[in-house]
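Weekly structure sync - notes
Attendees: PM, LS, DV (DV joined late)
Agenda: review two folding runs queued last week.

Item 1: First target. Sequence and structure tokens pasted below for the record.
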Amino acid sequence: MSAAAQRTALIVIDLQNDFCAGPVAAARYPGDPQRLATVAANAARAVRTARAHGTEVVFVRFLGDPVHQGAAWRHRDAVLGKRPKCLEGSWGAEFHGVAPEPGEEVFTKHATFDAFLTEGFGPYLTGRGIGHLVFAGVFADVCVDSTARTAFQKGFHVTVLRDCTAALHHPDEDVLRFMGRVYGARVTTHDRPAVWTRLPEYLERP
């Protein structure tokens, strides 16, 4: 990592009503709905902590309107009977339990999992000298993983807040273990800001 890419950013993924609360979220999430509520509350706390420590917060949101979907996405939804989520302008697309403050960047994914497929996301991070990404939000095995995977391949260092995310299709611990093994992700909790608001230890060594 160059000296110019020594900053940390908290990346908040898809913390939106259709993924975190209400009937759509409850129908999709196979675990205890209270788990989603706890994850969302912890992610909101992480945002407040990041701001207090001067760590940049970057929001990513999802819009799933059919007009944004590719042919394969529409086919999958038709086969599985899936309805689109986070429709533009709907309550479901609104942020849940947290809102960007003036000056904080928001990037919108149009029926994609990976935030790096959103125009400007990667260049914004590198332009800001950010080389360490801390992930919170949902879901750990879908959009968080997709973005963390690309981040690692592009040279970003990855930290995941285990109590600020939840997996949709696989056990949480299996997903976090995979990220640690394949992406070298550091895994910690939101209540340890002395750990995650800083660069990983190996980057701080002279």
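Item 2: Second target, run right after the first with the same settings.
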Amino acid sequence: MKSVEEAVSGAGDASTRASDAVLAVLRRFWGFEGLRPLQLEAIQAGLDRRDSLVVMPTGGGKSLCYQVPPAVAGRTDVVVSPLIALMKDQVDALRLSGYPAAALHSGMAQMEVRDAERELAGGRHHLIFVAPERLLTPRFLDLAARLKVSSFAIDEAHCISQWGHDFRPEYRRLAELKTRFPGASIHAYTATATERVRGDIVDQLGLTDPAVLVGSFDRPNLLYRVRPKLDVNAQIAGTIRRHKGEASIVYSISRNDTERIAAYLTSEGVRAAAYHAGMEADERRRTQDRFAAEEIDVVVATVAFGMGIDRSDIRCVIHAALPKSIEAYQQETGRAGRDGLPAECVLFYSAADVIRWRNLMERSAAESATPPEVLESGKLLLEEVRRFATVVRCRHAALSAYFGETHQGASCGACDFCLGEVEGVADSTVLAQKVLSCVARVEQRFGVEHVVDVLGGASSERVRRLGHEKLSTYGLLKDLPRKTLTNLVYQLVDA
């Protein structure tokens, strides 16, 4: 780790004075003696009130880049954050270290909001965390004006781009900050952004001559594996057993999936719990707290889990289904091995996952009147991650190339391809295609058990009576275990 003094060596008296102040803040609140790559440059942009775009991978320490400047300058800055849970986690962690910070969000009682606003008006906090919807309300704009806010940090800034993996229309209004606060600097932070998304963030926020700081996307301590999804519960359990007693996260698409997988792992003697948006807030918090306290080893979750989780010793991240983008995959796998030690990332792939995501995207677009171009962008991102799962090449090189970075070395030595483990990922696509075709040819009128009978070439009375034994091509799957066939069909029906 480069120390602050080394990072600014020879940069002149002003930089040296700034570095002393930065180092004093680091020691006071976090006990750190140095900074990671690009942190000093990002902090300096904040101190200079120069617009910036900072792209650091998960675990790279980007939050420190907007926490340090207001503490050094003795001012109050605003942080725009998309999730209440993320705000609460960050404020709780900062207060625990003695750093004065507050949040304003819809989950607070009116008395709490008034108390927080009174404390802010008294200059008692360095940071205010707020959602984009609240930021531009007359009440908050008035508060920010009275505080003479001179710097805004936009966390998860990729949400402003329709080419990003988590576009949120409410983020587009943040462009109004430049009009409302013409003298203030804007600092955009994200863990994942392609060159196209980075350009869009700069344009949408109206950043002026920004410092663009992009860290390396490669995580050499992570071992990437992609496996065809067959009996996914058993496959997940087998992977977890390689990390017995260690922290792991399993990501899946739906709430029902998380509960089914967590129940299966529990039945196998694994200390596991589910986590999804359909649970009561207190229940989600208990699961999160138990995981942080090492009372459980595995959390099976939808994609929201992990944001703000301050646990560096996660040894395994499993995707029970295809994520919806490379960006999501990079962000979620990036929660493993944040201590720099080896960690494993396993993705179980099936073509049926692509169909599920497309259906979800189309349904969501219809319900929320999503612009066609945003829906199309989501489908293109899905196609990129499908290609990653099926194209046979070094996983580290593929991820680096996606983000515009050249991976060094002929072999990473830390992925299934470079270790010579690649096996039949494409076969799972063929199996899924056969399942889809069979479901279509029985006119989608029958349940999972009957479709499995046809696929497996069963000679049951019902199959004969309906004439489905004539679909003999599907009998070629009769050598697959019935449990595997049932799992494949269920994925399709669940879509």
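Discussion on item 2: The two ends are 47 Å apart (CA to CA).
Action: LS to circulate a short write-up before next sync.
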